[in-house]
């Protein structure tokens, strides 16, 4: 009886450790998009919308930023959040890219 309880305990402890190990990575914040990233360069992404070169990106208008773009899915008030243009990464709420579309 003692052997069976010990085996059960070891198996359950191993399962718990595995579950905790995978859960920890699920709660980790996604990496921020770097302006030097290939996708970021192709989309003209800037961490600060105020640093967008309006001559190079004539579509840009003052007041446009990721936080008020229809593609941005971050929570209101957060500094960064997800965007489908950069899967698995977070864009700055104050950022901008050439795919910007005003939220309805």
From TrEMBL:
The record's listing under Gene3D superfamilies reads: High potential iron-sulphur protein (4.10.490.10)
Q: Which InterPro entries match?
A: High_potential_FeS_prot (IPR000170), HIPIP_sf (IPR036369), TAT_signal (IPR006311)
Keyword check for Thylakoid: no
The leader peptide range reads 1-28
Q: Give residue ranges for domain High potential iron-sulfur proteins family profile.
A: 27-104
One Pfam family recorded for the sequence = HIPIP
> Matching SUPFAM superfamilies, A to Z?
HIPIP (high potential iron protein) (SSF57652)
Q: PROSITE patterns of this UniProt entry? A: HIPIP, TAT
Keywords of the record, alphabetical order, are:
4Fe-4S, Electron transport, Iron, Iron-sulfur, Metal-binding, Signal, Transport
Q: What does this protein do?
A: Specific class of high-redox-potential 4Fe-4S ferredoxins. Functions in anaerobic electron transport in most purple and in some other photosynthetic bacteria and in at least one genus (Paracoccus) of halophilic, denitrifying bacteria.
The family assignment reads: Belongs to the high-potential iron-sulfur protein (HiPIP) family.
What does the record note on quaternary structure? Homodimer.
Q: What is this protein called?
A: High-potential iron-sulfur protein
Q: Which organism is it from?
A: Paraburkholderia unamae
